[in-house]
Amino acid sequence: MGSANGHHGPTAHIAIDLGAESGRVIVGEIRSDGGDRRGVQRLTMHEMHRFFHGDIADEAGGRHWDVEEIWLGIREGLRSAARWSASSDVAIRSVGVDTWGVDFALLDAQEQLLAPPRCYRDPRHFVAMDAMLGELANLGGAFRLFRVSGTAPMFFNTIFQLVAMQRAEPALLARARALLFMPDFLHWKLSGSMTCEETIASTSGLVDATTGDWSDDLLSAVGIPTHMLRPIRPCGQAIGRIRPDLARELGLSESIEVVAPAGHDTASAVAAVPAEASSRWAYLSSGTWSLIGLELPGPILSERACSARLTNERGPNGTMRLLRNIVGLWMVQEYRRERMRRGQDESYQELTQLAADSQPMRSLVNATHESFHAPGDMSPRIAALASRTGEPVPVGPGPIVRCCLESLALEYDRTLREIEGIAGRSIDVLHVVGGGSLNDLLNQFTADATGCTVIAGPAEATAAGNILVQAAGVGAIAADAVRRIARDSFELHRFVPQPAEAERWTKARERYARLREISLRADRQPS
Q1: Catalytic-labelled residue, pool 55, 98, 103, 265
Q2: Model pTM?
Q3: Is 265 a catalytic residue?
């Protein structure tokens, strides 16, 4: 990243932040308040446009993204940003995109999109993973992949998506001349330049965790063509200026730089964790997925880390995130959609209040169970797993949502203890960022389950990290100021373990470990 250039006036940057359910276009304005010579720098975020999107089922049962719908939403947000800039008299210096990981677009020799990008939840990816791990079993299987890439083998990894594509659509893959991960694809749409940013590439399972470059070993082992892969570049670098025709259409200045922030949304969120350097902290990026882990100076590639299904992903400034993916609030989101299909339209706040009013610790389920990954009605799956492990079946919105939240908190505790042992670190502060940081009930459950102080916020950490990494990249702020600005800019909420609840959570921790083992043992038995 660049160094601060001495300019102390307001600077503005546009974050295009895409999640699996919605997109946001946010202008971040950085100003220095009075006081000393430099003043305290604070970030103020202005939401320009929020739009909803989702993956689409095709006739063959696959799932893909409607990138034209996404692009329309982005352009609408950029138009609003142009109007904001004109009315506030603050120039926009840069724009950058972050998205969920692993998914990609393929372009042909004429730079045309070959097919709609597949969604990571496409069912054929499960089949490809099982087949590939079976073929590699004699060569080390999952651990062979992990010790090179540092990535836990999960069905949605790009490596398995490409294997699935090679088996189902080999001609399509042969015609591809560029593989662009979703933020790289959108940066190309903005600038006309094709790049591959490091944090998003590190989610693929195809990057050497030690060197940060594509792994020839893995690419040759699975027979994936390499001609379509772009050189991997650090985050925070300028890609080029916004396309002049796009700038004119949207009313933006043609001088705006397109800057690759941390393109993976989790990397952007962790960049904005408002941690004190002296604290023993971990992070939880809480949303559709829960991503919980540590920021480290390098990868951990041990067999124990592989067995724990941990993942090493790159962050800004040479950092590495050791983390675990947990299904997260997806369970509650899918249950809410199930209720909506049946004519019941409670808000997340209403569902959480119903959970708060329900009996504590009545029902628990293994929050990591694979049956929860797919879209569709959630309550039958929760009921089936509860019954299978001898738990009371939760009935109704309050008990079901409470079951999800308490089970998640216990899984957070289990995962943190495992990460502590593998990394050789103790943790006493857990920073919760992302949309889930607004759920006070889950935050208190998490403090009680883990025994950690939970610091919640910012909720828009991903957009904040995106903006601050951009700002550092163009020299508007110092690279080491990112976390300090995050601390000074957002209201944070603290949750501490409640002594009166300690015994209840100790018993629940033991019960959760038993039912989790029962569910895993049952899964290992042949059907």
Answers
A1: 265
A2: 0.92
A3: yes
